[in-house]
Amino acid sequence: KNFQGFPTREDFDIVEYELPALKNGEILVKVEWVSVDPYMRAYSSRYKAPYDQFGFQVGLVEDSKDPRFPVGTRVVSHKGWCDYCVIDTNDTKSEVDKVYKLPNLKGLSNSLGVGAVGMPGSTAYFGFLEICKPKAGETVVVSGAAGAVGSLVGQIAKIKGCRVIGFAGSDDKVKWLEEIGFDKAINYKTADIAAALKEAAPKGVDCYFDNVGGELSSTIINQMNDFGRVSVCGAISSYNENNMPKASILQPALVFHQLKIEGFLVWRWFDRQAEAFTELIKWIQSGQLQPREHITEGFENIPTAFLGMLKGENVGKAVVKL
Amino acid sequence: KNFQGFPTREDFDIVEYELPALKNGEILVKVEWVSVDPYMRAYSSRYKAPYDQFGFQVGLVEDSKDPRFPVGTRVVSHKGWCDYCVIDTNDTKSEVDKVYKLPNLKGLSNSLGVGAVGMPGSTAYFGFLEICKPKAGETVVVSGAAGAVGSLVGQIAKIKGCRVIGFAGSDDKVKWLEEIGFDKAINYKTADIAAALKEAAPKGVDCYFDNVGGELSSTIINQMNDFGRVSVCGAISSYNENNMPKASILQPALVFHQLKIEGFLVWRWFDRQAEAFTELIKWIQSGQLQPREHITEGFENIPTAFLGMLKGENVGKAVVKL
């Protein structure tokens, strides 16, 4: 079903298909890791229900009619929530449909292929660096900071020499963010946000990586310095609302501080994805970047993992192991 | 007094000063034209009352102790609402404090020095062209379209080959905007805004020049095409509110259509002002650009002109003739 308001388990149905015989250019993939992400909620209304739930997955090629993907290859695709799937390797309608080989993770968990070395990793890398263009010494704020993308953005900002403040929704998340190097993390559910941010960022905010939208973002944007940059990655605060929520307007701060706000979809940088993956793997191996995963086990638990992620139960990247 | 809510006549007082003798580097100016603009409302809280009301003016040098500005020169300064003033020509604390010679208007009214060939002109020219970067054939929307800046932006957009839609607050303004070449003008007070815009912009909106902020802007931004650009010049809808108003959030549209929104102050391009003036004068002389002025007469009527402008009574640039 298409979601109305907050999704429920009843919106999902598990269906068994008979897999067809492989045609030329197709591969049979046994899925090992499946991703659950906020954009799945946001994009629901674009499809006519019932539809196969899209999403990234890592899997092992078990049968192949494409010599570029021989049996035993690990691949990343957007084929979604299934335990086996047939992928047409020539399906290149859009970037998101293109199956690609899992990068050489040098011994790291293959699950990173849907996380820190997958779409969320490249989202954090390009969305932050290309749009915020952070300079060493600047103050960076991240909302949704304990999530898959936010936790990477904060750590990348530290690598680039910035002061980093994160907003998250629980004291446990706050504690973890400070452990992995955020200069300060703030529980937006319990803090006086404007005051806490003023204290944490006495020199004001230069860059803001926005995962949430809504009043939290308006408050942060109102504390930005002249020529501040905002990268808008998502608007989690609004995804489960049937009507567009309202928040304090941004225009006065935009004008008086000459701010720039830009939204993006990561596909914009699809042809540079290898560059991001190379850097991210290097940072993870050197210990500068610590990706954390929130792992749920079992195919039948994918919807539960998805609902938990929307409720903010995950710390780090929410993935499901099949 | 500093304004609280909508300004009133009682917030202003007319004071007589004895003008001091000129020192070296000073000029005595007899003021001829005084400007009233929305930013005067917005910036009020930055000053400790009582203060001399700032604002642009055009005047004639009557006495001079600076050979660069001999008697008889016409100058533009930010000395505000006065009938005579002494200007320190070496005051260069900020761009706005720099007095400069009125450009050669080739027979056009000197009042344009505080309008289409002054700060509002350069605001429209740079704020629109540099931030929206419009391309011929694109659809441009302007709010506050019948104001000093908005009416120029729409006409510049037409000169650049765009389709132009303006929002204004009365049927008379709508009529005038269509007379000067807007493809469509819409009365935002009476129209179903989303529907009227959809009809006027069947191919969607590529550029939006935002003078107002608030729900009108949220509605327009929600109808923008992928990679649309928004130039935020002002937020008139909020200036008379004591608390920041709320409106539908922009983040979902920003992300899904990869929009860019940027606020600006015109001083950013101060050193290129001559370029804007040259173009604007050329367009006015060729008849491609029709600047309209809303003239109030008499020094004592400046506050009334200001209040009328804030209420939207002006069509085109509001100026006062002394």
Description of the molecule:
The structure is a homodimer of 322-residue chains. Chain A has 322 residues and is an alpha/beta fold. The first copy, chain A, folds into two domains: 9-114 and 292-321, Medium-chain alcohol dehydrogenases, catalytic domain (Quinone Oxidoreductase, Chain A, domain 1), CATH 3.90.180; 119-265, NAD(P)-binding Rossmann-like Domain (Rossmann fold). Chain A is 27% helix and 23% strand. Chain A contains ten helices and 14 strands. Chain A has helices spanning 38-43, 119-132, 150-159, 171-179, 193-200, 214-221, 236-239, 251-256, 273-285, 302-310, and strands at 26-35, 57-64, 74-77, 84-88, 100-101, 139-142, 163-168, 184-187, 205-210, 224-232, 246-248, 260-263, 293-297, 317-321. In chain A, the strands form two sheets. In chain A, strands 1, 2, 3, 4, 5, 13 and 14 form a seven-stranded mixed beta sheet that branches. In chain A, helix 4 links the parallel strand 7 (163-168) and strand 8 (184-187). In chain A, helix 2 (119-132) packs across helix 3 (150-159) and helix 2 packs across helix 9 (273-285). The two termini of chain A are 23 Å apart. The relative contact order of chain A is 0.16. The model of chain A has no long low-confidence stretch (mean pLDDT 95). The interface between A and B is large, with 37 and 37 residues. Strand 11 (246-248) of chain A pairs antiparallel with strand 11 of chain B, so a sheet runs across the interface.
